[in-house]
Amino acid sequence: MNEHHIRWDDLQIVSAIADTGSLSGAGRRLGISHATVFRRLTNMEARLGVALFERSRTGYSPSPAGEDLFAVAKRVQADITGAERRLAGQDLKLSGTIRVTTTDTLFAGLLAPTFETFRADYPDVVLEVVISNQVHSLSKREADIAIRPTGKPPETLIGRQVGVIRQAVYGQRRHWQVAPAPLDALTEYPWVGPDNHMGNRALETWMAQHGLDKHCHYRVDSMLGMQTATRSGNALSVLPNYLGDADPELLRLTDPIEELDVPLWMLTHPDLKRVKRIREFTRIIGEHLRRTLDEQT
Questions:
Q1: Predicted TM-score (pTM) of this structure
Q2: What pLDDT score does 1 carry?
């Protein structure tokens, strides 16, 4: 194998095929066509004189030579990502791009207004927001900052807890006159609950423990969807206080449910902690979140 003929583009092709197990998957990851991936792989194998993948009906798996190049690709990518972070750390101006990942519920209920204020105060900063309930990798620079509810933040990231998300039972305001009410008085009413795909195990467990499953014939796979469903009928649901209290069509019917408290964290990669725009963003947004959540007792 003549390593002088191995280029970074070659390593990207090998890495994408090894990760996805197919030419089409590699093409989607790299933003090129299936045919282009096939042509570049074929040319690379001819140039190096070795098969890099074993083809089968189930996909592409690396050969020993392919495994070797895949390991090299991962090391090179890690070096490039580290260099990018170190260069970003030299930025002394409040400019550049900040890429934030958060959930749809947090963005709609807490973050969008203060993000707009930040943009107005720092117009040279480009703010990119990844709205997703999936965890994005900060180590691969898919995002610079993560704002997420979690009881156990990853040890590879740094950050701080900016508050506690509290939750309570809500109902449509026109159906209710008095609040709060004891939970026992609400158990016979219809309920809106989380769908299994939502992944809210704590809420699922709590509803099961209080016998609410048998009254739950309406399930939604997002918290915003549960809010909309509750506004639209006479069913009850558990919602974050920051979401339910701000909705004029909803009424909080119970005190916050302590078992459902969840810490809210703002996290970033250690290599970015000295970047001025990252420090300023986390300070401003963190203070806003802390004040807002402290008021929702």
A1: 0.66
A2: 46
